[in-house]
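Work Package 3 (structural annotation) set out to generate three-dimensional models for the target panel prioritized at the project kickoff. During this period the team completed the workflow that converts sequence records into discrete structure tokens, so that structures can be stored uniformly alongside our sequence database. As a representative example, we reproduce one entry of 59 residues exactly as it appears in the project archive.
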Amino acid sequence: MITGVLTDGSDRTGVYDDENGEPMVGSAQVRDPAFADRVVAETRALLATIPVDTAPTNR
């Protein structure tokens, strides 16, 4: 799913609107570069635990 989101060529932005139609602001945690770095590091570590020969393919 995430690769579909990352490679989607459409013009969808992923921005959510509030009840007044205004774009919602992300939380302070989401805007924190250190948090983003941590999420990336933890995600890479998790993905590294998946054996390549058992990963599903689209064949």
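Helices lie at 2-7, 28-31, 33-48.
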